[in-house]
Design brief:
The protein is α/β, with parallel strands linked by helices. Helices cover 42% and strands 15% of the residues. The chain has 2 domains: 173 residues, Rossmann fold; 169 residues, Rossmann fold (3-Layer(aba) Sandwich). Strand 4, helix 4 and strand 5 form a beta-alpha-beta unit. The radius of gyration is 20 Å and the shape is globular. The termini are close together. The mean pLDDT is 91.
């Protein structure tokens, strides 16, 4: 059996889900491991395989008492997985606290372990486990600095089939489906949890500039902004599973800089002004975004410098050179990441 773990946030869950879809298309059996308190539990209806959700808690950035609870939960969850894993099983983990129990159990049981590191700066989980892994799959060039060179394979980030299918749509078709005009269209999103700072900034942008837009607020802020945009050409959503349609309809984005977001934007050639989450562990969102800026596919501004007038100028800079920015960001997109991962697993697949 192939076990896949990833969650806590959408950035860890959706790539794991994309790989599961790819495996099932090829008739490879697999199961999913996640956390009860993560987004993966809420979105468990999307899982096409059996899922087990562990009572496990994050460690970094927590109080001493919470850290003790986290360590206990990781240890007890790891022990609960020991009877499940046989030596012929294979594990692939996508980082984050939700993945650690499966990773530790794989080490204890001596089963083949593979990692996928989505971000430019590896998570503590993946750095700890990389010495035991057969391979470490990465999305960003920058992350190679932190991992055993002989184990690193650059595959890019797996993307769900539904998102790839959206590439078949034209911009005109997508806008028609969303009741948008042909005006320049700005997409604003703060990741799977939303972002209060970006939400407030976006509202001021849409009031001041001539953009129409799609604003994905996150569920916490949705009610607050739903009424505020009533007389403005802005489609407001708390969350959507149909991101392919959204990307295809938009010309540029104002966004956080998670790995999944960057990968998806690059697939659709949507350049962005990135405002990295300032409290991201090891500032990984900033380094994610810098790699895109160096390719010429977007711009980066720190949150503390993201004043309205400055942000408007940067968005206009991207829009006035949109074709060049768009071509540049597409260079980040890796083709067939699932195939590249499966190629590294080939010697283990006959075990099934």
């Amino acid at each position: 059996m192939l076990y896949i773990a990833g969650g806590g946030t959408g950035g860890h869950f959706f790539p794991a889900l994309a790989l599961i879809e790819c495996l099932l298309e090829r008739g490879i059996p697999c199961k999913f491991i996640g956390a009860e308190r993560g987004i993966e539990k809420k979105l468990s209806h999307l899982l096409p395989v059996e899922g087990k959700f562990l009572k496990v808690y994050p460690f970094l950035g927590r109080s001493p008492v919470e850290k003790l609870r986290s360590l206990y939960s990781i240890f007890s969850s790891s022990l609960s997985l020991v009877p499940r894993l046989e030596r012929k099983d294979v594990s692939i983990i996508f980082g984050g606290y939700a993945s650690l129990p499966l990773g530790l159990t794989s080490v204890l049981r001596g089963t083949p372990l593979f990692l996928h590191e989505q971000n430019s700066v590896p998570s503590t989980t993946n750095q700890l486990l990389s010495r035991f892994a057969k391979r470490v799959f990465v999305s960003f060039e920058h992350s190679k600095k932190f991992l055993p060179k002989e184990k690193v394979v650059k595959t890019g980030l797996p993307v769900r089939r539904s998102l790839i299918d959206g590439l078949k749509l034209s911009k005109e078709q997508a806008r028609a489906l969303l009741n948008l005009s042909d005006k320049p269209t700005l997409l604003v999103m703060g990741g799977s949890q939303g972002a209060v700072f970006l939400n407030n900034l976006a509202f001021e942008i849409f009031k001041r500039a001539g953009f129409q837009g799609v604003h994905i607020t996150g569920e916490k802020d949705y009610e607050r902004f739903k009424d505020a945009y009533k007389n403005m050409p802005v489609l407001v959503l708390p969350f959507t599973e149909n991101m392919g349609l959204i990307y295809r309809a938009c010309d540029l984005a104002l966004s956080r800089a998670g790995a999944s977001t960057i990968t998806e934007l690059s697939l659709y050639g949507v350049p962005a002004l990135f405002v990295p989450f300032p409290h991201a562990i090891r500032d990984h969102q900033y380094y994610n975004a810098k790699e895109i800026e160096e390719l010429g596919g977007g711009l980066v501004i720190r949150q503390e410098k993201a004043e309205l007038s400055t942000v408007l100028k940067l968005l206009e800079k991207i829009l006035s050179n949109r074709e060049e920015f768009s071509k540049a960001i597409t260079r980040f997109a890796e083709h067939n990441p699932c195939e590249k991962i499966l190629n590294s697993l080939q010697e283990f697949l006959p075990r099934y």
